[in-house]
Write a structure and sequence with these properties.
The complex is a heterodimer of chains A (211) and B (200). Chain A has 211 residues and is an alpha/beta fold. Chain A has one domain: 2-Layer Sandwich (Double Stranded RNA Binding Domain). Chain A is built from 6 helices and 8 strands. The longest helix of chain A is centred in the middle third of the chain and has 16 residues. Chain A is elongated. The model of chain A has no long low-confidence stretch (mean pLDDT 85). With 200 residues, chain B is mainly beta. Chain B is 6% helix and 66% strand. Chain B has an 8-stranded antiparallel barrel with strand order 1-2-3-4-5-6-7-8. The longest helix of chain B has 7 residues. The N terminus of chain B is likely disordered. Classes of the chains: A alpha/beta (211), B mainly beta (200). At the A-B interface, helix 1 and strand 1 of A face strand 2, strand 3, strand 4 and strand 5 of B.
Chain lengths: 211, 200
């Protein structure tokens, strides 16, 4: 007898194929597209009033609250890129002993978050996956008192800060003037530094001065 | 085409008590605020299916389910992300619409036995909505159940001696209410093509 529904399996297979075509937004991103550049600033500051800057000669690596000073190739690239962009915007590089108006610090930050996998009913039905009889202990149950799933995700980023040294004495504190964050894939690559710092300055047109 | 169809006649196209399965491939087109604010591109990633009970030769009622995804990646731009805060990023919006609806189907010329049968349809139900938004690789999801209403029209092209099965082409307007973070309804138009056939 001819089966008039011969095409149904094919149709359902097609539907499953279409469902499988659902795109994962993150899989379509290149490393460059994955990166974001965020800037924030003190809106009360007039950046024209600042003329000179000094930049720290190393980078503070803040790894889950533990701080060490380092100077890797990518750190060097970020420090150089910051110096170049500041000079392009009219600021004069001076030694930190020459009373700079702005202090620049570059920081490499690692933040690790920990979570737990949700196994659902995995252990509740374990006897269904591996009947204790299989091991020669039919009638026994499994006791799983300690197993849990832990995952860790570490995100790394560059955080670049500008501090107000010009008014530190008056204010009796060193105020943050500007912060730039570089996050995403490849932020620790030397080749990323110039592009990232250029992006931070491109969205900070107020960062300029004249002598 | 209509002239030819008028020349071709056969027996009834649908019988009372018949259960029919409709399967459609769907191309979704965002409309209104959805198009202007979130996703402007159409999407070929969609399908729908309906199980319809024939109440009379002209009227059928049943349930329908579907899936339509939309995805758009916008070139890098600078967005205001806070007070005196700006973020340069590639913005990606992803929307998945998965409705489950009670559906009615009206085929006004069903009793004339012609090959081409216009139809109109309407549906109302719930929708599992997934809206994901990313700046670069950083983002989040808003998954929620919403109401959904749908109205459609199209043409059925019957085949076989009994004219109980056929191809169909048509369009559905979906009203998908949504209000959050300045974004509005995700209304869209679905262009459909598919098959229908009786299950018994």
């Amino acid at each position: 007898m001819k089966n008039k529904f011969w095409f149904v399996p094919g149709l359902f297979s097609s539907l499953l194929f279409v469902t499988g075509c659902s795109k994962d937004p993150l899989q379509n991103l290149t490393p460059e597209e994955s990166r974001i550049y965020t800037t924030s600033y003190d809106s009360s500051a007039n950046f024209q009033d600042y003329k000179t800057f000094s930049i720290a000669d190393s980078v503070a690596v803040i790894d889950n609250g533990v701080v060490v000073k380092q100077h890797s190739a990518s750190d060097e690239a970020y420090l150089n890129a910051m110096q170049n962009m500041m000079e392009q915007r009219g600021y004069l590089l001076v030694d930190k002993n020459q009373s700079p108006d702005i202090a620049i610090a570059v920081n490499r930050v690692y933040n690790t978050t920990t979570g737990f996998f949700d196994y659902g009913d995995y252990w509740d039905y374990y006897g269904g996956y591996w009947d204790p009889y299989y091991w020669g202990y039919g009638g026994y149950g499994y006791n799983v008192p300690f197993v849990f799933g832990v995952y860790q995700i570490t995100e790394g980023l560059y955080s670049i800060d500008m501090f107000d040294l010009k008014n530190a004495t008056t204010n009796q504190e060193i105020n943050l003037l500007w912060n730039g964050l570089v996050r995403g894939e490849g932020v620790f690559n030397v080749s990323t530094a110039t592009e990232a710092v250029n992006a931070l300055f491109a969205q900070s047109p107020y960062l300029n001065t004249t002598h | 085409m209509l002239l030819i169809s008028n020349l071709v006649k056969a027996q009834t196209t649908s019988k009372e008590g018949e259960l029919k399965l409709h399967l459609n491939y769907q191309y979704g087109i965002p409309l209104g605020d959805f198009k202007n604010d979130m996703i402007s591109n159409g999407s070929a990633r969609g399908y729908s299916g309906s199980l319809m009970y024939q109440i009379s030769p002209k009227w059928a009622a049943g349930i329908s389910a579907g899936y339509q995804s939309f995805l758009q990646k916008y070139p890098r731009a600078v967005y205001e992300t806070g007070d005196h805060e700006a973020t340069s990023a590639v913005l990606t919006n992803s929307v998945e619409i998965t409705p489950l609806m009670a559906t009615g189907l009206f085929t006004p010329l069903a009793e004339n036995g012609k090959i081409l049968q216009p139809y109109i349809s309407a549906g109302f139900g719930v929708n599992m909505l997934s809206f994901r938004q990313y700046l670069g690789e950083f983002g989040g999801a808003d998954n929620k159940a919403t109401l959904i209403a749908q109205g459609g029209a199209g043409l059925q092209i019957t085949f076989g001696k009994a004219k109980e099965s056929g191809f169909s082409i048509g369009a559905n307007y979906q009203y998908v209410p949504y209000q959050r973070n300045g974004y509005g309804n995700m209304n869209n138009l679905g262009l459909q093509a598919g098959l229908y056939f009786p299950l018994k």
